[in-house]
C-alpha cells in the first residue's frame, strides 16, 4: 500500500516538475519575444536575398558566412532586446498582458538579466570576429535597444519613432552591406516605416490608460482622441501615396505590384475603421496592418522566386 502511494506521489512530482520546466521554457520564449524574432529573421533573409542582394546567386548566398553571422548576431540582439524590454515593462505588462506575465513569472527576473547579458556578449563576440565595423554596428544597436527600454519608451513621439527605427535597423545594415541604394528600395523602406509607425500608434490607443498610469507618454494619452485619429489617418494616407509612387514610378512588377495595389484598398478600410474610433475597430485595424506586413514578406518571397526561376 505504502509502495503504491509512494509511486503515485513520485509520478505526480515528475508531472508537476515537467509542467514547471515547460512553463519556464515557454516563459523565457515569451519574455525574449522569440516569435517576433523568428518573424523578423525570416523577413531579413527574404529581403536580403531578394531585395538587397542583386548580384549573388543562391549558392554564393548560402555560403556567405559573413551574412549568416550578421543575421545570427541580429537574432541574439533581438532576443536580448526583448528580454530587457520586458524587464522594464514588467509592471505594465502585468496589467496589459496578464497571461503572458503569469507564464514569465515561472522564471525569476535575475535569470532574465543573466540571459540578456549572455546573449548580448555572444552577439558582440561573433560581431567582433566578423569585422570591427559589424561590431560597432551591433554596439550601437544594443545600446539603443537598452536606452529605448530604459528611457525613450516613456517620451512622447520619440518612443514610436525609436521603436520603428530599431525594428528596421538590421534591414538598414543589410542595405549598407550590399550597397543597394535605389529609389525603389528607399520608397519601400519609407512604406514599411510608415506602416509600422501606424501599427505602433494604433497599439498605443488600446493601452492608453495603462500607459498613462505607469508614466508612458504616448500620442493617444497626450492628445485628444480626435487628434490621435487625425494623426493615424494622415499616416495611412501618406502610406497610400507612397504605394502609388512605387506602383507608378519604380517599374515594380509581379506579386509586389499586386501587393501594393491591394494595399490601397486595405488602407482605405483601415481609415474607415479608425474613423469609427471604437476599441474594437482599433483592435481590428491593428491586426489587419500586422497581417498585411506579413503578407508583404510572403509577396516579396514569391516575387523573388518568380524572378530567380
Automatic annotation (TrEMBL):
It is found in: Membrane. It comes from the Bacteria. The chain crosses the membrane at residues 25-47, 67-90, 111-144, 156-178, 185-202, 230-248, 255-275, 287-305. Its main location: membrane. The keyword Thylakoid does not apply. Keywords: Cell membrane, Membrane, Transmembrane, Transmembrane helix. It is a multi-pass membrane protein. It holds the Pfam family UbiA. This is UbiA family prenyltransferase. It comes from Chryseobacterium indicum. The lineage of its organism: Bacteria, Pseudomonadati, Bacteroidota, Flavobacteriia, Flavobacteriales.
Amino acid at each position: 500500500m505504502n509502495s503504491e502511494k509512494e509511486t503515485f506521489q513520485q509520478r505526480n512530482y515528475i508531472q508537476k516538475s515537467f509542467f514547471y520546466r515547460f512553463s519556464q521554457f515557454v516563459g523565457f520564449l515569451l519574455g525574449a519575444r522569440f516569435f517576433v524574432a523568428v518573424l523578423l529573421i525570416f523577413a531579413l533573409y527574404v529581403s536580403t536575398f531578394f531585395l538587397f542582394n542583386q548580384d549573388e546567386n543562391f549558392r554564393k548566398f548560402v555560403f556567405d558566412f559573413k551574412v549568416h553571422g550578421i543575421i545570427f548576431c541580429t537574432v541574439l540582439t533581438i532576443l536580448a532586446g526583448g528580454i530587457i524590454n520586458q524587464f522594464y515593462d514588467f509592471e505594465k505588462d502585468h496589467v496589459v498582458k496578464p497571461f503572458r506575465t503569469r507564464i514569465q513569472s515561472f522564471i525569476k527576473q535575475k535569470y532574465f538579466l543573466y540571459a540578456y547579458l549572455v546573449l548580448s556578449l555572444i552577439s558582440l563576440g561573433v560581431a567582433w570576429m566578423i569585422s570591427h565595423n559589424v561590431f560597432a554596428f551591433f554596439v550601437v544597436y544594443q545600446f539603443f535597444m537598452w536606452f529605448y527600454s530604459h528611457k525613450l519608451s516613456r517620451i512622447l513621439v520619440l518612443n514610436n519613432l525609436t521603436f520603428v527605427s530599431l525594428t528596421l535597423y538590421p534591414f538598414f545594415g543589410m542595405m549598407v552591406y550590399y550597397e543597394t541604394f535605389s529609389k525603389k528600395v528607399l520608397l519601400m523602406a519609407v512604406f514599411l516605416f510608415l506602416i509600422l509607425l501606424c501599427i505602433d500608434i494604433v497599439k498605443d490607443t488600446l493601452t492608453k490608460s495603462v500607459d498613462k498610469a505607469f508614466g508612458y507618454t504616448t500620442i493617444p494619452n497626450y492628445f485628444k482622441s480626435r487628434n490621435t485619429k487625425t494623426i493615424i489617418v494622415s499616416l495611412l494616407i501618406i502610406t497610400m501615396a507612397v504605394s502609388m509612387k512605387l506602383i507608378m514610378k519604380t517599374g515594380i512588377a509581379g506579386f509586389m505590384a499586386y501587393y501594393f495595389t491591394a494595399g490601397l484598398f486595405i488602407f482605405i478600410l483601415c481609415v474607415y475603421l479608425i474613423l469609427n474610433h471604437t476599441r474594437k475597430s482599433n483592435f481590428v485595424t491593428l491586426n489587419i496592418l500586422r497581417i498585411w506586413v506579413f503578407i508583404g514578406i510572403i509577396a516579396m518571397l514569391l516575387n523573388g522566386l518568380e524572378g530567380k526561376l
